[in-house]
Structures are given as C-alpha cells and as structure tokens.
Amino acid sequence: MPLVLSSRLRRRVWIAALAVAGVAASAVTANAMFFHEPPAPKPTQVAAPTTVATPTRAADTTTPPPASTSATTAETTKAAAAPTKAQEPIPPNAVRVAEFVAECPFTHKLPDDPIVLPGLAGASHMHSFFGNTSTNAHSDVNSLAKAGSTCSPKVDLSSYWVPTLLVDGQAVEPTGTTFYYLGEGVRDDVTARIQPLPYGLRIVAGNAKATAPDNTTMSRWSCLHAGHVGASKDFVNCPAGTMIESYLDFPQCWNGKDLDSADHKSHMSYPVAGDCPSTHPVPVPKLRQVLRYPASGDPARFKLSSGPGFTMHGDFFNVWPEAEMAQRVRDCINRIVKCGPDGRP
C-alpha cells in the first residue's frame, strides 16, 4: 500500500509541476509579445533613395561656382541697376522720335559751381539752379542723392545750372525749363546702341570765358512764337509779347571711363559724321537744355552773370537713379519713341 500511494503521489506532483511550468511559459510568451523593444532597423532601411534618371535633377545637385571677385564696382552697380519694368509694346500712335524729358523748374541761385569750383563757396559768378534743391559748392553725388527735386519726374535728382540772366541789372529766372534727352544727331544704328548716362557723370557745355561768338559757343538764342527773328549765338531782339529762349546741346559721346576730367570737357565729345569718335566710343543720350525767360525787347538790356550772350553755358550733374535712366534709354531712345516725364510714350 505505501508503495502504491507513493506512486500516485509522484504522478500528482509531476502533473502539478507540468502545470506550473505551462503557466510560467505562457507568462514569458505574453511578456515577449507585448513588452519587447522593437528590432533595430535593417541596413536596407537606411540605404540611399532610388535615383531617378532626370537630367534636371542631376543639374540641381551641382553647386554653383562662387561669384567672380574680379568684377569692377561699375559692373556690379550696372548689374544691380538693371531695369525691372517689363518692356511694353510700342503703341500704334507713338511718335517716332528718340526722346524722354524732365521738366525741372528753377530752385535757387548761388555764386557756386560744384563741378568747376568744388568746395569753394562764393567763388563763382552767379548761377541759377534747376532740379536738385540742395546744390551748392560742396555738393557731391551722395549729398545730391539725399535731397529733393523740383523735376517732373521726381525721381530725377540731377542738378542743372546756368549763369543767371540779368535784364536791366535785375535777375530774371526762366519760367520754362525743359531738359530733353535725345537720340538725334547720330545714325539710327548708333541710336540703337546708346547707353545710359553713367551715374555721377558731370558735363559742362558751352564756354563761360568766350570772348566772341566762335565755334566754342554751343548755345543759341531765339524767340518763342517769333521764328522769323532767327537764332543767334548772342542775344536777339524778341517782339513784345514773346519770350527770349536759350537752347544748349551737351556732348553725347563718352570716353567710357571718366565721370569728369581736368577741364570738365575732355571725357566727353560731340559726334563726328553721325557716330562717336574712337576716342569717345560710348554713345549716350544728348541732353538738350531749353530755357524760356519772360523777357523781350532790346538785347542791349540783357547780360549773363558770365558776360555776353555767347558765354551761355550749362552744367549737368547726373543723379538719375540707374534703373530709371536705363529703362528710359531702352524704351524711348533705343526704340526711337517719344516719351513723357514718366518714361512712357
């Protein structure tokens, strides 16, 4: 009997042991199912993406070369100043004259000349100034760029000045002050390659020290609404009710490198036989200054602060924003289209 009982007991103990082992195994399995760390990603999961054989995509991965450090300041400025306005088609009723204009009324007068006598206040004969409101003996391109202007368009911050006209000893200022930028005086193929006047360019036209009406006299005097009087290098006798007017053409060929010169003229030239000479190969717009004074009658009553009528001269200091100048040259001068102060036909 003891042996039988012992055998039954052993079977029960063995069965109980198996049951406990099964429960433990189940617990281990459950723990492995719900609480294991995710397996590390396989190497194929971090491989490079599939390459698409597209030429533009290959080009996109190319690093552009660094900008050249040899570009000049002028080239950099020119690139930065490229016009942003889209070129409009030429209207069917456009006047085919290469021209844009600025109307720049009188602003002040001073015995100063920031081109010929820079920094010397009061050292010049009296000048009448137009356009930029700040011009004086100490003016430079930076000071002018920060000032205001009487011009239409307002973007023209340039300064224009001439000797003051005296009638019976009293200063008389012009009431008509138009500055034309023209493509005339050269062949059409030259007009097509006219370039913008460089920012900061200074030009003097005429001869303030002339002793006679000779070939250095670039100005002309005439009468508004009295063309029968004719033009002259000296003052003319305009009928009552008309106005005496002055025309002055500036040179339109630049040497391509200097914004000024020792005599304030050598860096510029007038065209020869419809083209710019090899010494001054860059064609630029011709500035024509037209001033109309409320005066008429005996020319003996007239005098300029620089002397007789044939000493009429003009000074120009270019402070047009580069993009504005470039757009007008492109749309008005090169295409031979007459534009108004807004630079549009």
UniProtKB/TrEMBL annotation:
Residues 1-32 form the signal peptide. The keyword Signal applies. InterPro entries: DUF1996. Residues 43-88 have a biased composition (Low complexity). Residues 39-90 are annotated as: Disordered. It holds the Pfam family DUF1996. Keywords: Signal. Residues 113-320 form the DUF1996 domain. It comes from the Bacteria. This is DUF1996 domain-containing protein. It comes from Lentzea cavernae.
